[in-house]
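Pasting as-is:
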Amino acid sequence: MYAINRLPGISVETVHPPAVDALPRMDVAAFVGFASRGPVHRPVAIDSVAAFAAVFGGDLALVRDGLRAEIVKGALAPAVRGFFSNGGRLCWVIRVARSAALEASWRGVSAGALAAEMTAHVASTGQFIVPGMLAVSGDGSGLTAAVAEAGSLGSWSDHLRVSARIERNNFTFLSQGATATGFRFSAPRGSQDGDLIELSAPDSQTRAYARIVGIADGRADAEWCGAFQDIADALADREGTAQLVGEPLLHKASFGVKGRAHLRFAATVPSGLEPGRWLRCLVDSDEIVLRLETVSESAVTGDAWAVARTPALPPPPVLAARVSVALRVDDGNETSVSGPFALTPDHSESWWRNLGDDAFYAARPTVQASQRSLLAAVERDRLNPPDAWLPLGLDDNWSAALGASKEKRTALERDGLSKFDRELFLDPALAELRTVTLATEADRLRDLGARQLFGIHGTFAIGSGANFNEASMIAVPDAIHPGWDLRKNEEVLQPNPDAVSPAHWFDHRGPCAVVPANVSLAAPDASRFLDCTTRELLRPVFVPFGGPQPTGQIVLSWTASEPDAIYRLEEAGHADFAGATTVWRGAETTHTVHAGREGIYYYRVSAELGGEVSEASTIAVLVRDSVWIGRRPEDFVKGSEAELLAIHRAVLRLCASSGELFAVLCLPRDFGAREAIAYVSQLARWRNGFGDIHAFDTNERRALSYGAVYHPWLASPSGSTTDPKLVTAPPDGTVAGTFATMAIRRGAWIAPANIVIQDIVALSPAIVEGDRLALDTARINLVRRDARGFLVLDADTLSDEREWRQINVRRLMSLLRRTAIRRGSSYLFEPNGDVLQRAIERGFSQMLDDFVRRGAFSGRTSADSYRIMVAPTRADREAGRLIVEIAVAPSQPMRFVTLRLAQQGERFTVAEER
């Protein structure tokens, strides 16, 4: 080795300046409420309205208003929009729903042990049969349907439609021996364990599938996954049974060949048959799979294969390819494509590595939404995946699209919101705990028990591992709903149009043909002289709906008539089809209509071919904007008010226990001054001795300073050009935005009031001038209107203690707590002596002097603004304990407020002196 000679020169080293010791953030909010999609009970960081929509969707329609002819929508989305439009920059969002884990925790059982009656209100995930795909397992269960599920819980996926396409990477197949269990071949470049190999023969539908289980020295070992043989005319005139793949019901059928496999049922076609799905047929001892392509009233057609009992290599020359699948999801507005995915679980890009939102955000709460997928692998399949998915019915073109599997439960039930009570918002292990023990138990459950916290208590997990919670405000906008009930069933008048037979069914074609009076035929009258082309077309039959349909887009489907038939769809507002209008003509067997309002819509479809018109099929569609109806204000007072009190008290206890959050609370929309004052009086009541066992006790009196109530609701434009209605929502999200604005501009010690609220055009309900004094006395912060616009001129907490009446005082103390924790944590494990004492006094003095310069304290000098007392006793030093007391005078006339900082070993705590 020769030494490298370097020329003399200058070495430049970059020295970064020390980080600025900025104050902790006090502009971050936490929102807990209802969303249409997204992870459940997991906090997710959101930095814009667009980011919220990408993760949690848009406005969530809940129920029909019991008083107004409108739909009640979830308050979470408007709250987040109000937060960002009024100055907010970052928030954490927790979607709540009655998930299986939450219900099991409340009932004290495991999620798998929930009884049927316990799951009636539990949220579920939309299930999708992947068209053209079969799943095969080596456990003896045979072929089943390939199923994917929506990325998150809820009914949001009902309108999605899924199609698939195969992607082949062809290679030259060189076999090195085959057995009954598999074969060995020369591995093409890029092969890896888990690749699915498709083998076929030219000019034949015969196919075999195998997965690579090992690669060494350029040779790959593969295990059979299944083989399928082209049946050609083998089905002609044979009897057997058929069933949808993955379902137990058997149906008698006869088989034949009309260009493709043709199957005619002994009865009408079973429900659930759609192009792209599979039938499993048993004909004598043969097992046959048939991919549906057309579905008529009593028959289906499609490609069919016989399942080989013993897989084997196709005859040479063998066509070979490594195969994967891409999925396309259409949500009605745009189409997204994901993949390609490998089709065996051992592959590094396996479909079963595609996680749903809950699993996706469990470890990555701030991952960008663009990395998520609308569809995910079913949870049970991720735990126990099949051997492979076989793309037997796919080619290079996109398959027919399939929608979500039909559900009997209503959308609100599948959203996990049909049963509205405190259980939606609270963790069962923490719901009844008092302030003094709440934070400690939450830490134990999260850290030691490794358990997810539910509802509002999920905020304990925000910024987990940091010195303090990143959020400093919390709002629960959806807690104020009065609850809801199912609407009563309504009788629907069935369609009864007058049957009119074509004139040429009675006579030859032409202008002189006349229909006899009061005569209707089910088929052409063969006893008369008719044109030789006169015949009866097969009647298309509507696929029935399972119940009322929501307003908006409704997909009508019907069975096929005859090849090349054109379908005419008519709509009417009456059962006799008087005044019916043609809304569509085309060759498809589905059409989407728009039902913009509630009512009963009548539809009629008929087929047309060669001058013939089939008998019409009719259907009545009951359209309801919701099958649930909200309770009236009088019902709220009788039952739901106790639920709201429990939630608001739990939020205040959460804030006081953590010492870091401030609760922005609101009231139901229909509360007038009298109802608002009565409710806040109950909420702010604390008992000294006997009384309401759920009210705050003497030791929790200070918890009332951790929250404020705002009223009334705010009306803002929807922002939609197609639906320009005003959106009315609780004020908590908007007010939280003004909190953030004030914290950013001037500091958390400035009262968050006298700030013009953006994007507001009205209040609901309007507050009478004469009621304002009583509401102010009750410590309710009113949103008002003056010449500048809409704004809040009050900043009162719920506390009846004079020192804690102002919001800015509580927020200042929370900021001091955060700052003290950050600075005090640097002294952990330092020798507990005089040097440490002087360092603490100097360090905290510098910190508090900065607050004095910023105007956070009322005193003109440091001596007038704060005091620091560090006087450890001998016993404290021997016990490894150090106590620091800081007394400050906030920027308003009041007594000194004392913070007590305690360090012992590796623990550092901050508490207010009571």
